[in-house]
Amino acid sequence: MSAADDLIQPIAVDAFDGYLAVLPAAASGLPEEALLGFLYAGFTAVAGVASDNAGRVESALGTTGAVVILPAVVAVCYLFPLAATATAVPVFFVLKAGRAAVAPVAGQFLNDRVESVGRATTLSAAAMVFALIRVPLKLLAGGVADLAGPVAGVGALGVVFLLAGGTLVAVERPGVTGSGEPEPGD
């Protein structure tokens, strides 16, 4: 989900013109920097609420459901701006909420499965793997954005995630043990 962060600002700046056309005249006099400030403040508020409710999300969907379903929903939302650019900014709010809700669930999932000895090393290794995955995704999104625009870059991330995630779910069957039974807590 974080691979799309670099494309938020250029897409939002382009979207402001369309949004300001329908807002009251007083808002149209705000400088772009102020609008971005309000946008990022909104992201922080939404992420805080989502993070605070991560436990509820996990209770409702199960651990596996939270780490599979929420990112898939965000990835599908990445495709909306391809059809209607005006949906881009609301999609970024979904991105920030989804990311904030999934992070504590995923962290707890790892914590629950790692012995106390070597826990820091394992969590650091997981963080490094996530960072290594982000690098090619950011390069892909940036390349597509350079060629076809930032909205297409976000759409490409959605397609790649859905294809890779769908393949992983089909092959690995997350949340199911070798016996075919769901893991405890899922």
Automatic annotation (TrEMBL):
The chain crosses the membrane at residues 68-95, 116-135, 147-171. Keywords: Membrane, Transmembrane, Transmembrane helix. This is MFS transporter. The keyword Cytoplasm does not apply. InterPro entries: MFS_DHA3_Transporter (IPR053160). The lineage of its organism: Archaea, Methanobacteriati, Methanobacteriota, Stenosarchaea group, Halobacteria. The keyword Kinase does not apply.
